[in-house]
């Protein structure tokens, strides 16, 4: 089956397409989501990435007071990250917002920007952030393998439609369900590896451009939020197609993550 995933980067509020290869692309969408409540996703980071040649937007998640997990494509070649935590809003005033800048990151040594294998990266803050009612971490250490039809939540500030290239001002969250990799290969073919995970909504819910790097969350007992995936790719048929959204699974990378952030 011919694999087609559209590659796109978001230049803050202006869209440019960066087709890495003819066949693969990278981006993701929150389509069909709802505004998050204040403090609902305290770990969510809005990241503006600067490289030597571009500037684009990604999501990320606070794993500790000094480390953020995001996609490998969001740190690859980065020279600066400007990171906002503590606010659901991107630009409107919010006294709970913390803004930090850093240039330090670790990319997975086997990240492949063409196939998006091992699409995981870690950003180190210069100074640990202080936890508040709006800033805190997401659980990751007890992340278990995600089964074939598990209820999950996808979040992000990405585009809410294919036609509007602007980010969402307000953080969005949407209920999705994991699908088996076997089923997802009908859309993405053999390029979908075991370390990737696909989710689908009840209709076309999922990720879009600007959501890349954002968390896929499993809500476990007492409402605890566990990081289970990193937004990685969407179908070349568009965010609003009913094709599944692609994530990097968190669980296969736990040892690698711990070896860096707990070192
Ligand atoms: C998920 O589905 C695949 C293919 O249908 C199957 O081989 C696998 O055992 C299933 N995994 C779980 C955890 O049920």
What does it look like?
- Helix content is 6%, strand content 34%.
- With 263 residues, it is mostly beta strands.
- It has a domain of 105 residues: Thrombin, subunit H, CATH 2.40.10.10.
- The strands form three sheets. It has a seven-stranded antiparallel beta sheet with strand order 8-7-4-5-6-10-9, covered by helices on one side. It has a six-stranded antiparallel barrel with strand order 11-12-13-16-15-14.
- The radius of gyration is 16 Å and the shape is globular.
- The protein binds 2-acetamido-2-deoxy-beta-D-glucopyranose (NAG).
- 2-acetamido-2-deoxy-beta-D-glucopyranose binds next to loops.
- Cα gyration radius (Å): 16 Å
- Percent range for β-strand residues: 25-35%
Distance between the termini: 43 Å
Mean pLDDT: 87
- Fraction of helical residues: under 10%
What ligands does this structure carry? Answer: 2-acetamido-2-deoxy-beta-D-glucopyranose
Strand tally is 16
Corresponding CATH superfamily of the domain at 42-137 and 253-261: Trypsin-like serine proteases
Instruction: Characterize the biggest β-sheet.
Output: 7 strands, antiparallel
Widest sheet: strand ordering: 8-7-4-5-6-10-9
Poorly predicted regions:
1-29
Query: Count of helices?
Result: 2
Given helix and strand content, the structural type is mainly beta
CATH class call of the domain at 42-137 and 253-261: Mainly Beta
Instruction: Give the SSE string.
Output: EEEEEEEEEEEEHEEEEH
Using the 3D structure, state the CATH architecture of the domain at 42-137 and 253-261. Answer: Beta Barrel
> In the CATH scheme, what's the topology name of the domain at 42-137 and 253-261?
Thrombin, subunit H
What shape does the CA trace take?
globular
């Amino acid at each position: 089956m011919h694999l087609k995933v559209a590659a796109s980067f978001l230049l803050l509020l202006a869209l440019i397409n960066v087709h890495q290869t003819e066949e693969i692309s990278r981006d993701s969408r929150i389509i069909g989501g709802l505004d998050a409540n204040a403090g609902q996703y305290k770990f969510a980071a809005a990241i503006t990435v600067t490289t030597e040649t571009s500037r684009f937007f990604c999501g990320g998640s606070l794993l500790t007071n000094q480390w953020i997990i995001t996609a490998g494509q969001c740190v690859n070649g980065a020279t600066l990250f400007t990171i906002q935590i503590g606010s659901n809003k991107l630009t409107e005033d919010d006294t709970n917002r913390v803004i930090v800048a850093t240039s330090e990151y670790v990319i997975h040594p086997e990240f492949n920007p063409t196939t998006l294998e091992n699409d995981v990266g870690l950003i180190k803050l210069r100074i640990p952030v202080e936890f508040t009612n709006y800033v805190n971490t997401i659980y990751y250490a007890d992340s278990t393998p995600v089964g074939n039809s598990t209820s999950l939540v996808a979040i992000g500030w990405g585009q809410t439609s294919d036609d509007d290239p602007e980010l969402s001002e307000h953080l969005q969250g949407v209920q999705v369900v994991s699908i088996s990799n076997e089923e997802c290969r009908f859309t993405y073919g053999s390029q979908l590896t075991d370390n990737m995970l696909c989710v689908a909504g009840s209709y076309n819910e999922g990720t879009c451009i600007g959501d890349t790097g954002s968390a896929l969350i499993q809500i476990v007992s007492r409402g605890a939020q566990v990081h289970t995936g990193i937004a990685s790719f969407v179908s070349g048929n568009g965010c609003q197609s009913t094709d599944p959204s692609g994530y990097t699974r968190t669980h296969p990378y736990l040892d690698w993550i711990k070896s860096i952030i707990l070192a």
